[in-house]
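for the writeup, i need someone to sanity check this before i put it in the appendix. the sequnce is what the collaborator sent (i think, or maybe the updated version? ugh). structure was predicted straight from it, no edits. if anything looks off just tell me and ill rerun, i have time this weekend
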Amino acid sequence: MIINKETIYTKDAANKKIKVTREFEAPVKQVWKAWTERELLDQWWAPKPWKANTVSMDFRNGGTWLYYMEGPDGSKQYCRADYSSIVANKSYESLDAFTDDSGNINTEFPRMKWKVDFNPIETGTRIHVEISFNSAEDLEKIIEMGFREGFAMAHNNLDELLATQSQ
């Protein structure tokens, strides 16, 4: 069986959601670590030539990940994820936001509720991400900012990272 390395998007405007599916050629435990450990996240989360940098991360129910993506020109875009539900090696949920460098929410951008599921498949792991928005306009704003292209590029970075790790 061949792994599908395409990031597949489904826009569900009626329900104000974006659904994303992607397969990785690595076991769930390895992919889970890449999504939940700061040292690994920083290696793949941002689309090249941008780089992700974790400021702080407390991966637990009620915890927060504060990070920024740094562009080649030195510009920084801060974000945070507030974790609300974690089931180890299965799923997690978070409420994400763009922020300032102290983690204060930037209300000019929409918040996004993420649910990320990790599913074992014969060839590795299938990730299913469901991102919910407060309005269809918020969903469109994120898409217009290049979410689809950027997230697909980050997934390619993750493929490269996983290939360098011993399973």
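The chain has one domain: 8-157. The domain at 8-157 is CATH 3.30.530.20 (Alpha-D-Glucose-1,6-Bisphosphate; Chain A, domain 4).
thx in advance!!
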